[in-house]
Amino acid sequence: MIVPIILLFLVILLVFAVIGNYNALIGLRNQVSNAWSQIDVQLKRRHDLIPNLVETAKGYMKHERETLTGITEARSKAMGADSVSEKAKAESALNGAMNKFFLVVENYPDLKANQNFLAVQEELTSTENKIAFARQSYNDQVLFFNNKIQMFPSNIIANMFNFKAGVFFELENAAERAVPKVDFS
User: Fold this and answer.
1) 78: closest CA among 59, 98, 61, 64?
2) pLDDT tens, 61-120?
3) For residue 135, is it within any domain?
4) pTM score of the predicted model
5) Is residue 20 part of a domain?
6) Is 57 exposed, middle or buried (0-12, 13-18, 19+ CB in 10 A)?
7) 46: which residues sit within 8 A by CB, 6+ positions away?
8) Which of 52, 61, 28 has the alpha carbon at shortest distance from 151?
9) Is residue 32 within 8 Å of 141, Cβ to Cβ?
10) Residue 12 lies in a domain
11) Residues ≥6 apart with Cβ < 8 Å to 80
């Protein structure tokens, strides 16, 4: 009589463990999705600011059409990317185009002093900081989620319900990994 009660208790305990692990995995997956949404919001903001920056610069940079076209094309590709890895690659290309643009801007003192240009540049800098923070938050959530689906016993539940590891939002461009050089001379 006591053996069936113990077995029933163990089955109930196992069911609760499965439900608890499944719910934890769902919660972590939703946190990853939310963190990605935060990146997406900031990337959209960035993509919306770039045309304003380019328009402000066009009047000054008549001989730099290639640079301006490169930014526009990179922005279009970034906006069209779907997966995390495609988005990371496209955003790296856009960062490269923007870095080239800001190097060229150094040759135009009037542009650097233009209030509209400075305001958009400040907004863009603020957005870049928000993107970096959102990317860090997203990667933290992916790490928590991936750890959960790979560690015992939740890995059993993750495999049963076909949970897939999240993809980190990593930098593609080696230039982005480089430490900026500061020169006050």
Assistant:
1) 98
2) 777 788 888 888 999 999 999 888 899 899 999 988 998 888 888 888 888 788 888 888
3) yes
4) 0.78
5) no
6) buried
7) 124, 127, 128, 131
8) 28
9) yes
10) no
11) 90
Neighbouring C-beta atoms of residue 34, cutoff 10 Å: 12
Q: Which residue has the tokens 């001989």?
A: 63
Query: How many other C-beta atoms lie within 10 A of the C-beta of residue 51?
Result: 13
Give exposure, 151-182, as e/b (b: 16+ Cβ within 10 Å): eeebbebbeeeebeebbebeebbeeeeeeeee
- The helix (H) or strand (E) run that includes residue 55 is helix 2-58
Whether residue 13 lies inside any domain: the answer is no
- Collapse the DSSP code of 178 into the 3-class scheme (helix H, G, I; strand E, B; otherwise coil) and give the result: coil
Q: Which domain holds residue 112?
A: 34-177
Spatial separation of the C-alpha atoms in residues 137 and 27, rounded to whole Å: 16
CA separation for the pair 30, 32 (Å, rounded): 5
CATH number at residue 167: 1.20.1440.20
- State percent of the chain over pLDDT 90: 54
User: What's the structural domain count of the chain?
Assistant: 1
| Residue with token string 């002093």 | 113
